[in-house]
């Protein structure tokens, strides 16, 4: 699957840590991606994402500016109305960056995803199985965490930790330099958007 992705170093953009915050609006879901400062605090906005609600074919576009005039990357479902759809992440020119897919069967009890990019295949699950089950019956803003591990080495390539708050806020750590920031940001936003179903 990863053979379709460009593998030259200049096509890889890595960011070891960033933050994702959801903005509540009436017609769309908006996400703010912020860099992490050296002291661990939130830094500048580096991307804005927007998802139209009730879209039949899931698509989220990320922009370089808050006015949303310069699209820089996006993800889109290959199939409409498919709970196990594959999502392709592409840059502004349509060049593939990676992909992710919900493991629908495993997600019945514990949300799980496949994540692919140049040179790696990873699998992610909710870290706490008990919280995963409770979330299915109680609609409260639980803190929950995802760890994505390399399918070959077992090493963590990415983690996303949701903070306990009424507004969705995530800290995303990406220790593996093979994981493009744009793919990690798409996966982090995808986790929030897809877990609300």
From TrEMBL:
It comes from the Bacteria. InterPro entries: LOR (IPR007612). Pfam families: LOR. This is Scramblase. It comes from Labedella phragmitis.
């Amino acid at each position: 699957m990863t053979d379709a992705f460009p593998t030259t170093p200049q096509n890889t953009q890595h960011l070891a840590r960033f933050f994702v915050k959801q903005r509540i609006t009436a017609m769309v879901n908006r996400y703010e991606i912020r860099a992490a400062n050296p002291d661990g605090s939130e830094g500048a906005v580096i991307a804005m994402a927007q998802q139209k609600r009730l879209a039949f074919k899931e698509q989220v576009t990320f922009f370089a500016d808050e006015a949303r005039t310069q699209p820089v990357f996006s993800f889109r479902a290959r199939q409409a109305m498919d709970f196990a759809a594959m999502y392709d992440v592409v840059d502004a020119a349509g060049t593939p960056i990676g992909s992710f897919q919900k493991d629908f069967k495993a997600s019945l009890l514990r949300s799980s995803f496949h994540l692919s990019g140049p040179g790696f295949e990873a699998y992610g699950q909710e870290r706490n199985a008990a919280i995963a089950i409770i979330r299915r019956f109680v609609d409260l803003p639980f803190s929950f965490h995802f760890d994505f591990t390399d399918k070959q080495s077992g090493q963590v390539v990415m983690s996303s930790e949701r903070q306990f708050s009424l507004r969705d806020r995530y800290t995303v750590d990406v220790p593996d330099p093979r994981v493009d920031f744009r793919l990690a940001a798409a996966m982090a936003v995808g986790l929030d958007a897809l877990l609300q179903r």
